[in-house]
Each structure stands twice: as C-alpha cells, then as structure tokens.
Q: What sequence folds into this?
C-alpha cells in the first residue's frame, strides 16, 4: 500500500467530510472553537486508527451477517477508553465536547471505513488508512473551527483577536455551521474539478 | 460573449421575437420606484438615511465586481441588480447602524447568497433579506434599536440632538397577556394616529416606515408592468383579512390598519416578494405565494418570538417557489387532460 496515495485520499480526494460528506453531526456541532475541534479530531483519529486495526485483524473470523454489530462493539470499546481518558486528563475539553464523544460510536466515518476499507484490507493498510482519514477529518474540523471562531466569536483558542462588537455572531450558531461547511464543500468541489480539468 | 450586433446571420433556437425589456431597464424602474421612500426616509431620519443607502449600494456593487473579477467571469454590475439589493438592504435596516455592519450584510447578500449560486437569477432566496437575517442574528442589539423620527428631523435641520431610540408600532402589538396588550395598543393608538402610520411618522427600519411612499412606488411598478398585482395584493390582503378576523386588542379595524401600516409589510409585499428570481412564474403561483407570505407573517407576529415576520415569511416562501411553480404549470396548448389522470 502506498502511504502517499492514501494520505492524499484522506486529506483531499476522498476527504471524509468534504467529499464523502460523513460525520456531519459532530462537524456541525463542535466546530465553534479551535480547542474543541482539536480534541474531537484527535479523539476520532485515535479511535478510527485503533478500530481499523482491530477490525482488520478479526475480519476473517467475523461472520458476514453480524459484522455491523461486531464493528459497533469494537468501536464502542475504544470510544469508552477515549471518553474516560479525556475526562481524567483534560476535563475542560471533555466537558465542552459533552455527548459528542460518546456519539463517536455511531460516527459514520468510523463505521464507513470499517465497512469499506478495514473489513477488506490487511492490518498495516488499515492502520495507515485510519491515520489518513482521521487526519482528513481533523484538518477539516480545524479549518471550520478557525473560520467560525475567528469570524464568529473574534477569538482564537480563547484569545481575543477581533474587538468584541465586530464578529459576525451568526457563524457560531448552528446555521453558521451549515453555511461554513457548505462553502467549504463548494470550494473543495471547485478545486477538484479545476485539477481534473488541468489533467 | 458573442457580439450579436456584428453577426451577419443569427442562428438561434426559438423564441425569435425579442422584447425591448432588459434587466437593466427593469432594475432602473425598481430603483425609481424606491426613490419616494428614500426621500421620505431622509425627511424622517435625516441625511444619514441617504449616506447609509449610498454606502450599502457601493458595497453591493463593489462585492459583485470583486467576485466576478476574482472568478474571471464576465462583469455583471451594469445590470443594476446589485444596486437594488444594496438599496433594499439599507431599507430594511435601522438608520443608525454602523457603516461596517451594513457592508458585512452586503458581502453576505452578494457573495454567498447571490454569486455563489451563479449570480443574478440563480439565487433561491432574496439576497437583501438574507443579508438582513444574518445581521439580525449577529447584531441583535443594533438591528432592533430604532431611531425616533423626531430626533432624525432635528439632525437634518442642524440641531445637535443625540439619537433617541423609539419602539416600533409592532412592539406595542406584541404580547400574550390580553390586558397588558390592550393597554399597550391603546398607548400606540393615542401616540400615533392612523394618518401618522400611513404617512410614516413612526419608528422603524429606514425605508419601511412610509406606507404611502411605498404604495406610490408599487403602483408605479405595476403600471410599468415590472411586477404583477397578484403577489402584493394577495400578501397584503391575507394579512388584512387575518388581522381583521383575529384582532388581539382594540377594534378589528384599528388592529388591521396598524398591522398593515406598521412594520415592513408594504416594503416586503411590493419590493421583496416580487423579486423575479425568487417568486413563482405563473400568476396563479404568485397568488399562492402572496397568501403564504401573509399567513407566515401573521403567524410569526402572533406566535413567534420576533415582533416582525415579513423578512422570514418571504424567505420561507422563497424556498417553496420550485414546488409552487411545479404545481401551477399551465397546460400546454393542444394538450388534452385525460379523465381521471393524476395532475
């Protein structure tokens, strides 16, 4: 397996959020500050990589008919680990992410990669795929957090950049999440179609 | 773009008969129709009404030019549609909001709502209303503090009075407690008579206060055949009927008159709900569209958390336009409807 190719797929051509349009719920909900985005992105990165590896390792012994249930059990195990770790070591982030950490169990990105990639590929490739897709997710979260926190609240990671009366508050509301994500998806499609034309 | 004027042979698909109407001509008429209301706003609120409108127009034209330039698309500012958007956005804003605030609204209206969807004719909600919705959600404080018209006139004639904020008529007409509502509506009717309401000597957004001036503009547009009478009549009629039948305080007639003259109903009905890109094509569809706008306006005013429902009601109905167009599609000439066939 080609690491560079997988990285390019995860970050750009098969980006989980902007191209596959998966994991919308958490993307909308938590991208209001950089720290939230970082916490969520890293959590998903770790869980995705770990569950990809385990699912890939047990793929030969899992019966086809109950594979989804097995995926969920594996993912839920890792989510619980990460949830407890976050609560123990970074309680502030755990508190602000709230229910969205337990909800990673049903995050489509992780289930999607389990079904479409690690159930069919070897452990090594699945490990790399988990990291690449996780990085793609984290990158999009950080871009969205950057836009929404800077323009919507006027701060970056809690530090005030823009004076209080100026920021466009709508960006921190749920509707702002849809707006920013829509614009990012449009920009991504535009860039992809441009590069296709270039070839 | 093909240079049609210098082509010897024009080979195109039908229709071959071209009207003399152009987008630019229509937009010019809309601008002319808005001038009485703008003049009245200057009289009512002082010269700031004019400067705010000019800044907003300049902002809209600039953002349109900038986007088309950056995207290397043919320039479209000469069709004047961005001028109309700029004027409308200023018309639905309070007169004292800072210039940078209206420029943010302009940028959102032109770049996100209009140009990202492909420019004129492709936007699915009214850009000026979307700009207002964004400003209202972002800067609720500035967007809902209104200038007392008396103070505005003082500024126009040179005296140095600080801006006095005043409540709009609609805020007197909001409430769930019948006794309190009856009292505040009584205060409203004793402060402003129906004549003041009709002429527009009341607090409110820059261009929405004078029902008279807006009706003059609207009648001009209908006379010039720029808009059909269906949408505004259905819209205002629905609000009138509903408020007459279900008054919340005072007499039915008073409640109805204050409902249709207060707030942005006239502006919305004549200038916003009739926007070509975001309203139905057929006359039957325009009637349905107007009734829907009226219904949502009354529902928001009666049961919603905002005082005014015109902006959101038109935006909601904008989203229904594809469905309305689909179900009011006229039968083509020569097509016979089958008995019992599904519509």
A:
């Amino acid at each position: 397996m080609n690491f560079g190719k997988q990285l390019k797929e995860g970050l750009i051509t098969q980006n989980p959020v902007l191209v596959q349009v998966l994991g919308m719920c958490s993307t909308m909900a938590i991208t209001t500050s950089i720290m939230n985005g970082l916490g969520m992105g890293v959590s998903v990165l770790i869980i995705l990589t770990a569950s990809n590896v385990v699912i890939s390792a047990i793929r030969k012994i899992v019966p086809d008919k109950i594979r989804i249930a097995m995926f969920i059990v594996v993912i839920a195990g890792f989510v619980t680990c990460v949830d407890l770790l976050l609560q123990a070591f970074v309680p502030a982030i755990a508190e602000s992410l709230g229910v969205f950490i337990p909800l990673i169990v049903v995050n489509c990105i992780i289930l999607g990669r389990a079904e479409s990639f690690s159930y069919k590929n070897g452990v090594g490739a699945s490990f790399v795929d988990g990291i690449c897709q996780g990085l793609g997710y984290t990158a999009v979260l950080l871009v969205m957090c950057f836009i929404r926190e800077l323009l919507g609240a006027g701060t970056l990671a809690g530090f005030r950049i823009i004076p209080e009366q100026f920021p466009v508050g709508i960006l921190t509301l749920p509707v702002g999440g849809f707006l920013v994500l829509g614009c990012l998806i449009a920009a991504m499609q535009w860039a992809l179609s441009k590069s296709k034309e270039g070839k | 773009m093909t240079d049609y004027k210098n082509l010897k042979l024009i080979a195109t698909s039908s229709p071959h008969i071209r009207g003399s109407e152009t987008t630019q001509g229509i937009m010019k008429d809309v601008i002319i129709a808005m001038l009485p209301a703008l003049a009245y706003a200057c009289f009512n609120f002082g010269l700031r009404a004019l400067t705010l409108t000019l800044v907003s127009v300049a902002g809209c034209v600039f953002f349109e030019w900038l986007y088309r330039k950056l995207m290397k698309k043919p320039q479209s500012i000469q069709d004047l549609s961005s001028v109309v958007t700029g004027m409308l956005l200023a018309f639905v804003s309070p007169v004292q909001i800072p210039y940078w605030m209206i420029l943010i609204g302009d940028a959102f209206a032109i770049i996100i709502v209009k140009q990202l969807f492909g420019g004129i004719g492709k936007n699915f909600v009214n850009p000026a209303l979307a700009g207002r919705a964004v400003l209202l959600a972002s800067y609720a404080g500035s967007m809902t503090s209104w200038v007392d018209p008396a103070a505005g006139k003082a500024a126009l004639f040179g005296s140095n009075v600080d801006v006095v904020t005043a409540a709009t008529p609609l805020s007197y007409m909001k409430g769930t407690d019948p006794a309190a509502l009856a009292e505040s509506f009584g205060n409203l009717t004793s402060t402003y008579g129906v004549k003041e309401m009709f002429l527009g000597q009341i607090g409110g957004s820059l261009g929405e206060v004078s029902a008279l001036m807006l009706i003059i503009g609207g009648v001009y547009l209908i006379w010039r055949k720029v808009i059909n009478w269906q949408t505004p009549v259905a819209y205002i009629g629905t609000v009138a009927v509903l408020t007459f039948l279900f008054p919340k305080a005072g007499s039915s007639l008073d409640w109805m008159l204050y409902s249709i003259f207060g707030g942005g109903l006239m502006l919305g009905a004549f200038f916003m709900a009739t926007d070509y890109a975001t309203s139905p094509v057929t006359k039957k569809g325009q009637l349905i569209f107007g009734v829907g706008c009226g219904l949502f306006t009354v529902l928001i005013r009666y049961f919603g958390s905002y005082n005014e429902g015109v902006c959101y009601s038109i935006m909601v109905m904008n989203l229904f336009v594809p469905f309305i167009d689909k179900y009011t599609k006229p039968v083509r000439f020569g097509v016979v409807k089958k008995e019992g066939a599904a519509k």
